[in-house]
Design brief:
The complex is a heterotrimer.
Chain A (H helix, E strand, L loop, with lengths): L1 H19 L14 E7 L7 H9 L2 E7 L2 H8 L8 E2 L3 H9 L3 E2 L29 E13 L11 H4 L8 E4 L2 H11 L9 H14 L3 E5 L3 H7 L4 E5 H8 L5 E4 L6 E7 L1 E2 L5 H11 L2 H11 L6 H6 L2 H4 L9 H4 L2 E2 L5 H16 L1
Parallel strand pairs in A: 1-2, 1-3, 6-7, 6-8, 10-12
Antiparallel strand pairs in A: 4-11, 5-8, 5-9, 5-10
Helix pairs in contact in A: 7-15, 8-9
Chain B lengths: L11 H24 L16 H8 L1 H34 L5 H13 L2 H15 L13 H23 L4 H9 L4 H30 L2 H6 L7 H11 L3 H25 L2 H7 L1
Helix pairs in contact in B: 2-11, 3-6, 3-8, 3-10, 4-6, 6-8, 7-8, 8-11
Chain C lengths: L13 H29 L2 E3 L5 E3 L4 H6 L2 H33 L3 H15 L3 H12 L4 H13 L17 H25 L3 H9 L4 H12 L1 H16 L3 H6 L7 H10 L4 H31 L2
Antiparallel strand pairs in C: 1-2
Helix pairs in contact in C: 1-13, 3-7, 3-10, 4-7, 5-7, 7-10, 8-9, 10-13, 12-13
């Protein structure tokens, strides 16, 4: 015990002392301080990525976390508090860009963009990739415990419209995603949710709610692994992570199709060190670096060159790279309008209040 | 001695009731503390005694930094609350002026306004109206949280100091004034010594309020200004292990120590005040 | 309270008045009332773009807040708060009574014992309750052990854990747990001030203890009771953390909806309107309390 408290007090004292002094960083050849503020999702980078970047360039990266896109947006709303690189999802790339909160990317400083797989070079939410570079892509699906479920639950019906697994279902608390998955289940496009469809989905969710055990905020895979629920709506990468530790778990993209996402690297407007930011993004697009990241976070990578370097157990992993009719019908979501967001919000409040 | 008809405490139904309520209040907290020493990842099945979770806490850099942040915020907001609260108490005790009733009512607001309303008010204020400057070195970047905490706790300090002022004899100040002492000397040498128990109690109150606060801090903190309760909240959401118990136990111990100190210093004043 | 206090006019000591008056008043105006005023202004605004808010001066947000959907949530919150207050009153009155009749030293110890949990962080208290109520929490583990030891050998089914968390029961339990100390202290203060001889007289005249309680004690202690009720009801109404951590799929209270408007729905004007509705209800409760106090003082 004395050893612990001495070390802890010492550590605390040093930490406080260090942080109490204001730091000065040396300036690099590009005239910017040799550091970078990286605002990223939690556990969303390789084990040595940041250290490798510092070793290669001398730029020290400080990473802070946000829990969801809304938190990122709220944080940047009043002005950039000093972040150089952020990782919004595709729809938020649109939101940030139309609100004037992004800096355009200088492709001349991003030679590694040649590594991107062809389908990510030009995308509807960022034509010509003026504002973003892809970091990962994700698919929502159903994670489930094989021994407690009959066969493969390859339809949204089992979580959205059925009492078969009553009391053992976990849904995502993200309202927008729920509504669009419901629309997909009913056979519509995720970007074609009319008020009538929204009403239909809302009623369906209200009916289904009594069979749902809980709504999770992105800890669904932990609840599945702990046995609290047997089916959960979650992202493929999250489920892939817990599948590595538990053979009884599996993942499927329902055959009606799902919502796809892509988390992208952007430079917020007013970033203090845009050149360092470009160098960092280019570094992340490197094949070896990309492979290292993919190996740790187990999400599908949009980097074709990195993918080629990955072992078979990653490339053939059906959770990380889902296949089948569901994937063919899957779509990326699109930001619609403020009015639409408000309608979704109200629909979800109705579901929660019912 | 036979118990009189009003000796309620001696009657067994009331004793049983007290015991049950006591059990209800303390069982969760005691179990929390006990299981922080659990030699296992479970928080409800005892496997053995271990200090391992405390070791995990101290090695978690983010948690230690969050704790440091909480302490600094509490200290700074306590200091500000003391100054403002004492000033307000003296103002209301000594002077009669137009709008005094309105001021007293306004001072009472932080005590009654729901925390969520204050939380969102400060969020909007420090995001859109007066954005707290960015890239400030620690601890200045905690400024927004410190201001928010001071705003809601200085009313409590004013209350406590005012209660203590009620027993101050102005004749002493008068005598000193007659002897030629200036206002500042009177304050420093005569009033402050009398006020010390109230000041200490007020300071401990403000410190505990700041350390305990969750809702207002939840809305005013950011990713680089994480405080202890916020960090524990994300631990509770994502990974419920005895580490959370250990962190909570530390917080309980700190609060209990401060409260005990406050009460010991205030002594008999408490019972009198509670009846006032 | 100011029995022997000087009551000078500011002009008699302008320097001192400025020194003790300006700091708190300026702080109150700039850093307490101003943020609240901003929220109040926003409640009359709307989102023009994703980041700009225009103050339009119309009541649209309030009108939306009074739609059946939100009204229902408000009603549910009022219901939770009322139920919590009632349970706290029933639990707390005997406790306050017992403390008020204890010896001076006993009073101090018992008060301390009641207040100590209150001085613990709200999150810690809620988490402590979570740990007890969970599927593999203390209560279920204990019951399960007992059940498995006694009933299973008799060929009963294995123990199914009770659903004690993630539902409305847990929310009310959590609210009571967190707010009980709030109720006890004002009740104690009021009961402590009672004239004992009145109670003795009532007992001497043959009324039972409960009748005395109901017809003598409660009316006399009414201002204190109302204080305790208000001090419990208002925070319970605006509770955020308890329904968030302990609640189930239909336990959201008004504070949870407000939080969503500011953190994920990006609709600050509407969130502001909801916040202010909550505040107006708070003020109404306080006015009611002042009214009752004035009436009971007049009746004396």
């Amino acid at each position: 015990m004395p050893e612990v408290s001495r070390r802890a007090l010492g550590g605390l004292a040093i930490a406080l002392a260090l942080e109490g002094c204001s730091r000065r960083w040396p300036k690099g050849a590009n005239g910017e301080e040799q550091r970078l503020n990286f605002y990223n999702w939690d556990t969303y980078t390789g084990e040595t990525t940041l250290a490798d970047f510092e070793a290669a360039t001398g730029i020290e990266v400080t990473m802070s976390h946000y829990g969801n896109n809304d938190e990122l947006f709220a944080r940047l709303r009043a002005g950039n508090p000093g972040y150089d690189v952020i990782v919004p999802s595709n729809e938020f790339v649109t939101r940030l860009q139309i609100s004037g909160m992004l800096s355009p990317l200088d492709h001349a400083r991003l030679p590694n963009k040649a590594n991107l797989a062809p389908q990510f070079v030009d995308v509807p939410y960022d034509p010509g990739r003026r504002w973003s570079m892809p970091y990962t892509w994700l698919a929502l699906g159903i994670g489930y415990r094989k021994s407690r479920v009959d066969g493969v639950p390859d339809s949204w019906k089992w979580v959205l419209d059925s009492d078969r697994y009553s009391g053992r279902i976990g849904l995502l608390a993200e309202g927008d995603d729920l509504i669009r998955l419901g629309a997909k289940y009913l056979g519509h496009s995720v970007n074609g949710v009319t008020p009538a469809i929204m009403e239909q989905v809302t009623q369906m969710l209200i009916r289904q709610k009594r069979h749902v055990k809980l709504f999770h905020h992105d800890e669904g895979q932990d609840l599945l692994a702990a046995g609290e629920i047997d089916l959960v709506v979650e992202y493929n990468g999250d489920i892939a992570q817990v599948m590595a530790e538990d053979d009884d778990l599996d993942f499927v993209v329902p055959r009606e199709g799902t919502l796809l996402n892509s988390d992208c690297l952007c430079i917020p407007a007013g970033a203090p060190r845009p050149d360092n930011a470009h160098r960092f993004i280019n570094f992340l697009l490197d094949a070896t670096v990309g492979a290292g990241i993919a190996d740790t976070i187990r999400y599908p990578t949009p980097n074709g060159a990195a993918l080629a370097l990955m072992p078979a157990d990653y490339r053939d992993n059906r959770a990380i790279f889902p296949a089948g009719p569901g994937m063919e019908r899957s779509e990326y979501g699109r930001f619609r309008s403020i009015g639409h967001i408000r309608a979704v919000e109200e629909a979800i409040t109705r579901v929660m209040a019912a | 001695m036979r118990a009189g008809p009003l000796d309620y405490l001696a009657r067994w139904p009331l004793r049983l009731w007290l015991a049950l309520v006591g059990l209800f209040l303390y069982l969760p907290l005691v179990s929390l503390v006990v299981f922080s020493f659990n030699d296992s990842r479970r928080i409800s099945v005892w496997r053995g005694f271990s200090l391992g979770w405390y070791r995990t806490l101290f090695e978690d850099g983010e948690l230690v930094a969050a704790f440091g942040n909480s302490l600094v915020i509490a200290a700074a907001s306590t200091l500000i609350s003391l100054v403002l609260g004492t000033a307000a108490a003296i103002l209301l005790w000594r002077f009669r002026f137009a709008g005094k009733a309105a001021l007293e009512a306004t001072l009472g607001l932080p005590v009654v306004v729901p925390e969520i309303c204050l939380g969102v008010a400060f969020l909007v204020f420090f995001t859109a109206v007066v954005p707290w400057p960015t890239e400030l070195p620690w601890p200045l970047n905690l400024g927004a949280i410190i201001i928010a905490h001071a705003s809601f706790s200085f009313s409590f300090v004013a209350l406590v100091v005012r209660a203590r002022l009620a027993s101050f004899d102005p004749a002493l100040a008068e005598a000193a004034r007659d002897l030629g002492a200036g206002e500042w000397a009177i304050f420093r040498d005569i009033m402050v010594p009398h006020l010390v128990p109230g000041l200490v109690a007020g300071a401990l109150l403000a410190f505990t309020l700041s350390l305990d606060d969750f809702v207002i801090t939840f809305f005013t903190s950011g990713p680089d200004t994480i405080t202890f309760p916020i960090k524990v909240y994300s631990m509770v959401r994502f990974s419920v292990t005895p580490a959370v118990n250990a962190a909570s136990t530390l917080l309980i111990l700190l609060t209990a120590a401060l409260t005990a100190l406050a009460l010991w210093l205030q002594g008999a004043d408490i019972a009198k005040q509670a009846a006032a | 309270m100011n029995g022997n206090a000087p009551t000078q006019r500011p002009a008699q000591a302008p320097g001192v008045f400025a020194a003790v008056g300006l700091p708190p008043i300026i702080w109150l105006l700039a850093l307490f009332l101003a943020p609240l005023a901003v929220i109040w202004a926003y409640s009359f605004g709307e989102n023009r773009t994703l980041v700009d808010i225009a103050i339009t001066g119309n009541w649209a947000n309030y009108a939306r807040a009074l739609k059946p959907l939100y009204l229902a949530i408000l009603m549910k919150s009022l219901g939770f708060a009322a139920l919590t207050t009632l349970i706290c009153f029933i639990l707390g009155l005997p406790v306050a009574l017992a403390i008020s009749f204890a010896s001076p030293r006993g009073k101090l110890l018992l008060l301390l014992a009641v207040m100590l949990p209150f001085w613990t962080n709200l999150l810690v208290r809620t988490y402590a309750l979570m740990a007890i109520l969970r599927t593999e929490g203390l209560i279920n583990a204990g019951l399960g052990a007992v059940w498995n030891a006694l009933a299973v050998p008799l060929d009963a089914d294995p123990f199914t854990p009770l659903p004690l968390i993630n539902n409305n029961f847990a929310v009310v339990l959590g609210l009571v747990y967190v707010h009980l100390p709030f109720m006890v202290l004002p009740l104690y203060a009021a009961l402590d001030r009672l004239d004992r001889s009145l109670i003795e007289a009532s007992l001497d005249l043959g009324a039972g203890h409960l009748a005395t309680l109901w017809r003598v004690v409660v009316p006399l202690a009414l201002p204190g009771i109302v204080s305790g009720v208000i001090i419990t009801f208002i925070p319970a109404l605006g509770a955020y953390l308890t329904p968030d951590l302990l609640g189930g799929t239909s336990s959201q209270m008004i504070a949870n909806v407000i939080e969503r408007q500011f953190r994920s729905a990006n609709d600050w004007p509407f969130g502001a309107a909801l916040s202010f509705l909550l505040m107006y209800m708070t003020f109404a409760a306080l006015l009611l309390q002042a009214f009752i106090r004035r009436r009971s003082e007049a009746a004396r």
